[in-house]
Amino acid sequence: MKLSEFIRPASLPEARKALRALGPKGMVLAGGTALHFMPGKTTVTAVDITGLGLSYIKQKGDYFVIGAATPLSDIQRHRGPRWAMHEICRRISTHQIRNVSTIGGNIARVFPWADLPVVLLAMNARMVVYSGKEKDIPADEYFSSQPARLFRGGDLLTAVKIPVLKAHHGFGSVKATRNATAFSLVTIAALLELKNGVIKSARVAAGSGIPFPQRLKPVEDALAGKEASTAVFKEAAAAAGAAARWVGGEGMSADYIRQLAEVSILDALERAAEFARGRAA
Amino acid sequence: MTKTTHTVSFTLNGEKKTFGTRPDEKLLALLRREGYRGTKYGCGQGTCGACTVLLDGRATYACLLYAMQAEGREVRTIESAGTFDNPSVFQKELVAAGAVQCGYCIPGMVMSATALMETEKVLEDEIVKEYMDGNLCRCTGYEKIWVALRKTLDRQAAAPAKKPAAKSKSSAKGGKK
Ligand SMILES: Cc1cc2nc3c(=O)[nH]c(=O)nc-3n(C[C@H](O)[C@H](O)[C@H](O)COP(=O)(O)OP(=O)(O)OC[C@H]3O[C@@H](n4cnc5c(N)ncnc54)[C@H](O)[C@@H]3O)c2cc1C
Ligand code: FES
Ligand code: FES
């Protein structure tokens, strides 16, 4: 993507006004790491949102609120009671990329291999979109198709709200890669709510290896009401084939990727159950 | 000659500077044409680490940063870390360990290690690997670089009062004279 102009608005309303005036010739720039790779012959004006106070992590009631321009490395280093976001952020690309790229940039325009949409779907996060005033959008609706649709009119993502995990909740994520810093082959995230060893509710999501991040409903259905045991997790993981259209690539067949997903689902569920039983995050 | 349409001002190796640029110019390109050639162009797409510089003390890829993003910030390049005559402790250890073969990756390695040493107090292997995970070396197999870094860190841990060399060098700012 070619930049013809670069502006630094001083406030959110100013940024939105500029983006509305620019239309398709305007482009939000947060970390800017994805902009270098975006195709397109038309030149755009970069609207830098890093000066708008959108880089923070705080706990507000039942939610951790993460500003949209918070770099992934800050999320990775943050610690709080039953905080679970650091593991997946540590697995995204390299130290230098994590220092610059932001949570907002990762989920405002979703690439098939993006890891955070998977985690935020499983965690039932809420995305805060500014359109003159702020509005929360639940993850299922936000990720129902390409979120960039929400920002075409100059609106902006301002924050991500992640429910604070309760004592009987557990979270686990697994990213399968060829090497430590590579793009994901399969990413799985699982949130389990346990009561006396029984799974009260489950949210399981996948990304990479499928065209777009999504929840795996047949896997979730195979868990609800059952005992939180390895046998049950294995049976649920076996529903992966019915849950999504797995695609091959990089020399791997679709069937291989599905099997990789099954193993990763089992791992993520074991981690989530362990977390729910009291593993320190 | 680069046709410039905009200006960008930032602190470079301790000195306030203003440069002509264009909105789509990468910080790496600006630095190199201004004479800061220690920062290398490797892949140009955020995977090798040869272009690593410090932005407000954090290691970043200059090839994935528009120069305009540096406005008002503090940028440090390898020229601030040490010179041929006055190398930093890590640079000395790299030479002593025989860890420099073609040398192309070394400026990036030194900058990532500088960020590590200036930021972290506990220098366990896990955290060291995290800071160094964005720097590739195609020659050495990493072992000797690791040995040199571990020696530097262990020495720093043994003498915590001593400041790392990177910040204080006034003789090594680099750039066109
Ligand atoms: C070498 C490399 C490896 C990577 N590996 C991984 C990986 O393994 N897993 C992974 O998940 N990601 C990976 N990434 C992606 C990286 O995390 C993205 O580049 C990043 O998420 C984009 O963040 P950014 O802040 O740089 O966004 P930008 O480049 O600034 O923006 C990206 C897009 O989002 C829009 N945007 C940004 N913020 C907002 C906002 N607040 N409101 C509305 N629109 C907005 C921009 O207009 C643009 O369209 C990798 C990137 C690189 C370069
Ligand atoms: S040149 Fe920047 S990471 Fe390779
Ligand atoms: S010494 Fe040649 S790339 Fe590292």
Structure summarized in a few sentences:
With 281 residues, chain A is an alpha+beta fold.
Furnish the topology, listing elements before pairings.
The complex is a heterodimer of chains A (281) and B (177).
Chain A: E1 2-7, H1 12-22, E2 26-29, E3 43-48, E4 57-60, E5 63-67, H2 72-77, H3 86-90, H4 95-100, H5 103-108, H6 116-122, E6 126-130, E7 134-138, H7 139-142, E8 156-163, E9 169-176, E10 186-195, E11 198-207, E12 214-215, H8 217-221, H9 230-237, H10 240-243, H11 254-276
Parallel strand pairs in A: 1-3, 2-3
Antiparallel strand pairs in A: 4-5, 5-8, 6-7, 6-8, 9-10, 10-11, 11-12
Helix pairs in contact in A: 9-11
Chain B: E1 6-12, E2 15-21, H1 27-33, E3 52-55, E4 58-61, E5 74-76, H2 89-97, H3 106-119, H4 125-132, H5 143-158, H6 165-168
Parallel strand pairs in B: 1-5
Antiparallel strand pairs in B: 1-2, 3-4, 3-5
Helix pairs in contact in B: 2-5, 3-4
Task: Describe the 3D structure.
The complex is a heterodimer of chains A (281) and B (177). Chain A folds into three domains: 2-48, Uridine Diphospho-n-acetylenolpyruvylglucosamine Reductase, domain 2 (2-Layer Sandwich); 57-163, Uridine Diphospho-n-acetylenolpyruvylglucosamine Reductase, domain 3, CATH 3.30.465.10; 169-280, Enolase-like, domain 1 (2-Layer Sandwich), CATH 3.30.390. With 281 residues, chain A is α+β, with helices and mostly antiparallel strands. Chain A contains eleven helices and twelve strands. In chain A, a hairpin with a 2-residue loop joins strand 4 (57-60) and strand 5 (63-67). Chain A has helices spanning 12-22, 72-77, 86-90, 95-100, 103-108, 116-122, 139-142, 217-221, 230-237, 240-243, 254-276, and strands at residues 2-7, 26-29, 43-48, 57-60, 63-67, 126-130, 134-138, 156-163, 169-176, 186-195, 198-207, 214-215. Chain B is α+β, with helices and mostly antiparallel strands and 177 residues long. Chain B has one domain: Roll (Ubiquitin-like (UB roll)), CATH 3.10.20. Chain B contains six helices and five strands, in the order ββαβββααααα. Chain B has helices at 27-33, 89-97, 106-119, 125-132, 143-158, 165-168; strands at 6-12, 15-21, 52-55, 58-61, 74-76. Chain B has a five-stranded mixed sheet, covered by helices on one side. Chain B starts with 5 loop residues before the first strand and ends in a 9-residue tail after the last helix. Classes of the chains: A alpha+beta (281), B alpha+beta (177). The structure holds flavin-adenine dinucleotide and FE2/S2 (inorganic) cluster (2 copies). One FE2/S2 (inorganic) cluster binds at residues 100-105, 137-140 of chain B. Flavin-adenine dinucleotide (FAD) sits between chains A (27-35, 49, 68, 92-93, 97, 101-102, 104-106, 108-109, 113-116, 151, 156-157, 183-184) and B (46-47, 64).
